[in-house]
Amino acid sequence: MEPICEPLSKTLKPLLLLFASFLLVVSLGDGNKQLPPRSPGASETAETYDKYYNYVNLTNRLRALAQSYPHIANLSSVGRSVEGRELWVMRITVEPDKDTPGKPKFKYVGNMHGDETVSRQVLVYLVEYLLANYGEEERITELVNTTDIYIMPSMNPDGFERSEEGKCEGKSGARNNAKNVDLNRSFPDQFDAKTVPPDQIPEVVAVMKWIKEQKFVLSGNLHGGTVVASYPYDDSAAHKEEGYYSQSADDGLFRYLALVYAQNHPVMKTGRPNCPDTPSETFDDGITNGARWYDVTGGMQDYNYLHGNCLEITMELSCCKHPRASELQNEWRLNKESLLAYMEKVHMGVHGFVKDAVSGAALSDVSIVVSGIRHNLTTAKFGDYYRLLLPGTYNITAVAPGYLPMTVNGVQVIDGKPTELNFNLQPLVNGAGGSTPQSTTSAPSTKHLIIPTTEAYNSTQTQAAPSSTPFLPPDHKPIHPKEFRHHNYADMELFLRKYASEFSSITHLYSIGRSVQDRELYVMVISDNPKVHDHGEPEFKYVGNMHGNEVVGRELLLNLIEFLCRNYGTDPEVTQLVKNTRIHIMPSMNPDGYEIAEEGDATGEKGRNNSNNYDLNRNFPDQFVSITEPRQPETIAVMNWLKSTPFVLSANLHGGSLVVNYPFDDDKDGRSHYSRSPDDAVFKQVAKAYSQENPLMHKGHPCADLYPKEYFADGIVNGAQWYTVPGGMQDWNYVNTNCFEVTIELGCVKYPMAKELPKYWEQNWRALLQFMHQVHTGIKGTVSDQRDRMGIPNATISVEGIDHNITTAHRGDYWRLLVPGNYAITASADGYTPVTIYATVTKDHPEVVDFRLTRLYANNNGPSDRELYSLIKELSQDQGLEQLVRSTATDNSFRYRRPKDLDAFLRGLTLNFPQITSLHRLGQSVEFRNILALEISNNPTKPEPSEPKIRFVAGIHGNAPVGTELLLEFAACLCINYGKNPAITKLINETRIFIVPSINPDGQAQADEKCASSRGMNNSRGKDLDKTFFGNSSQHVSEVQPETIAMMNLIQSNDFSLSVALDGGALVVTYPYDKPVHTVNNEATLKYLAKVYAKNHPKMRPGDTACSNNGQKGNVPDGVMKAAQLQSHMGSMKDFSMDFGHCPEITVYTGCCLFPAADQLATLWAENKKALLSMLVEVHRGVRGEVKDRSGKPVVGATIFLNSTLKVFTSEAGYFHVLVHPGTYTIDVIAEGYEGQRKEVEVTSYEAAATVSLELDLDNSIFGLQREFVVACAAASMTALVLTACIIWCVCSLKSDRQKDGFHRLRQHREEYDDEIHLNSMGSKKSLLANEFQDESESDEETLYANKI
């Protein structure tokens, strides 16, 4: 029986399971009913939490679960891996085989990196938990009933198969897919155009298709390697390796979602993962912005947000990527609550349906626009949408092609439950009657369900941000101004302040300067991000009332401000303009003239000029004519404004005729005829854009009664053809900035009666909007560095055939107006190879043309250098420095400190921050008060010759103590933010900062708190210390002061790169020299350094430097001047620093008052903080490097010449650093005993110092001749000398031999002679005595030789 029963059993089991499933479905009936508890089926084994599932096991497990829970689970594959493994997805919801309208879709994706395995198992456990507890737990049942849940345990099954259990750091080859491609670097990226071939990443291709088809609402991507929740954006345009916060439009919402996961995770919420490889890494609240952590290009979470309707964050679950299986149960315990809580957040914000108001049909792909959030999503196939939002009040719009947009204002979003908001969109043309519906604005009811209705069509008017100007029905009626009157200065000021306050999210009111009579020159910015320049967003401006008695422009611009503010968020065109343009509106450039003009004046001159009686439109520098009239404060303010903002397009509103006038306004001949600019075609195009929208202007007959013969074809005219205007503003805009400006004459009557004003608005409002649209024509893009992808400021954009270039803004973005056609566009920048791109310009939208330039000279930057390089480049941009100012705010209570308190404050800093501070006693004053210098560095006790040194000094005049207090606050700000702010931390780590708060403590102790008191200016001996710095004793006119000696020693004992001295009594920055010298070799650099400080000071930058208390004149160009021009004198600290310290020093005069009231210190700190920080950035610019020989030994004392004029010397370890103004430099190195060397380097205004590494060869020259030649000559000489010596020796030897032969013969004769004598003397006594007394002092040979001779 057994062999028969076994196959029967196998046959019956599936039938029984099928039957049981059928009964369950039938008994379920309504999908929302709960099921009774159940135990695992026969094909489903209990989870043990002690093993990993390989691909086969995972497949079997998921199939078993799907079979056991068919009513709520469905297993499918979205694609296959490189090696053919299925990418399994378990769908969990009621009726999982079909889509239910209105149910939000949620997904989890795990194991994207094959060796990060915890997520794979945890998601299997989550699937099991949801299925097993459905009908068992109310929370799980509710979640499954109301949510369409998709769970992908493994996106990279191939990588998992190669991973190895226990490898915490991951296994080589397991992270990536089988083609060795990182799947989380392979999605399309908003900041990087690189692509990966689809055949290399089938997993990514499959997931992208899945994301776009399903329109998920919320998602989580589970990883491993630490414990944190990371949210978009994952990268930025700067692609800085770390530390750059890349904020998305939904940043607050993303932070909230990340916190939901982190705060429910026992380890993650602490923010301290304590991972073995990164023990010191921490995350505030357990979350981080992706790019701030580290830059990830091509990540999946950003792709979901930008292309998939879906908000996704990335959860890092464990320090160990592939822990032992025994840890899995604990990982599930740690993450279970976080996984569930995060899923539940898919039910927050606003949801509903969008339908056709006539047919009732569902509308898919309708844009859901939330006012103030620059991120839209679209409806799904049933017309349903889910827009996650934080609790608050919102204006929400539905926008669809062919339908009248619909907006609901004041939608209330509460915590805990989504608000239902349905839209019924009215077709633009009603098929039944052919009529066009009227749209109105709807306010929501207090009910949780919001169904907007109107009397006729149940529709409301909307806001939208389509890519091109939306089609509007002819009778589309936005909200227009209802009150028209003339506004005097006080009335205008209140009007502007009112709208700035009422619409603060899109407005920013500021002043660019003051008129002669001290009235503010107000400008209102209207944009969705009004206070800063958005990368890629053009800047536009309108200027009115330049002639004080031409008032229509003034009133129209006030009307325009009201119109834009009131219609933002409800009118599609206005919303589009405000979202995509930064609009600057100056209602009155000549408020003084307006105040004396008279209503009803048609053609008069009263009030036309400013208070000094100068015509402001004849006061600008002219390209053809020399303007001799003094530049007026209003003119200077506008010129500075234009130089500081990258305007693209502008209009100057006048009165007295009805025409658009375009450049040029004059020519070199001074005759009235057509003066064509290089961009004549562009000017005609933008001029016509305005005139064609004005019902009277385009006819060309402006003022028949006044000028019956005057005619302007199409309502436009070339300026010089009409009449010549030397010194006009529109030409100055075009010639000196990037801005294209035209002049619009708005009517024949200059100062019409107030009752006429509604007529002017009606004639011009469409034209005003249409002209603004012209800023979005031509080409736009970004010029960036090929290496680091950061934008290049001041790069030149040139168009072949058009002799007019424009330059890029601070972050490398640009806009170039062009008429439709084909163009060759070239981008060039100092130090880069130019690039040319061909582009086709159309009429409908700007063509995007991006450039990436390659450097001519590569800098040798190591990893640490690259990090500093990126930081300096980021902080060089105005927004980067502004962000640093905002992020380093500290609590402070300003007061003036006496010398004793000052000492205590400095010592307190060293006690609280001992690791980065050191206090140096430089000396004592006459009255024995300490002169202290605080050093701030990451290692203040250890010399770091490669780090630049900067000196901040104050209090040389005791009656000007503002600088002292500013430097004390500056020191505290740096110390407090060290370790907290990445930028400050990096700057301190890479810089040696010396702060000397008070050089003259005796004078400060004597000073009076009065604005202009001289008491305390000098030291206790009555000496002005800034006249006592002399380099040699012969120059001293009196004894050397102890304070001077202390500072001279500091200046000469350290190789400072830059010094900043703070003083008072004026509002300007001065640069060397104080003594009257005629020429300064590096004056351009000194002036540049002064400008850096001034441009970051809100009052100095526009040249607003007038001081009524001391007679200082205002409008100093760029806020800087040579010191001798302010007050020439000898013996200054600045000059001593230059001549004997080889360090440039600038002096900052912080304010007109020498000793202002203490309550003004906070304002002065706010004015100077950014500028002081900019000096910490600036000290890292210029040229730096090291000089070594071929063996690597530093060459100390080598002389470095830059462009053959500027000279510096290498210090210990062979380092050198010199600050120079931007440009190309030739570097020549000379060192004794070494050959000279030359290199070229490019210095920019936005990058860290160009690093130069120089290796010197030993000098091969002797006496100016090549070493080889000298050695050869010496060798030849020595050879000749040796040969000569040999010859002499041989000759001498020959002579010696002959002489010896003679001696030999003489000896023989002597022997014979002796014998004879001996025989003869034997018998003679007398002979014997003679023999006895012979002289023995001579040798026998000498005697015989002598006798012989």
From TrEMBL:
Annotated spans, Disordered: 160-179
Residue ranges constituting the Peptidase M14 domain according to the UniProt record: 51-346, 485-775, 895-1179
Cofactor(s) needed by this chain: Zn(2+)
Entry's family note: Belongs to the peptidase M14 family.
InterPro entries registered for this protein in UniProt: CarboxyPept-like_regulatory, CARBOXYPEPT_ZN_1, CARBOXYPEPT_ZN_2, M14_CPD_III, Peptidase_M14, Peptidase_M14_domain
MF terms (GO), sorted A to Z: metallocarboxypeptidase activity; zinc ion binding
Signal peptide annotation: 1-31
Domain of life: Eukaryota
Gene3D superfamilies tied to this protein: Carboxypeptidase-like, regulatory domain, Zn peptidases
Keyword terms of this UniProt record: Carboxypeptidase, Glycoprotein, Hydrolase, Membrane, Metal-binding, Metalloprotease, Protease, Signal, Transmembrane, Transmembrane helix, Zinc
Active site residues per record: E316 (proton donor/acceptor), E745 (proton donor/acceptor)
Name this protein carries in UniProt: Carboxypeptidase D
GO cellular component: extracellular space
UniProt keyword Nucleotide-binding, yes or no: no
Transmembrane segments: 1269-1292
Ranges of biased composition (kind: Basic and acidic residues): 160-172
One biological process term in Gene Ontology: protein processing
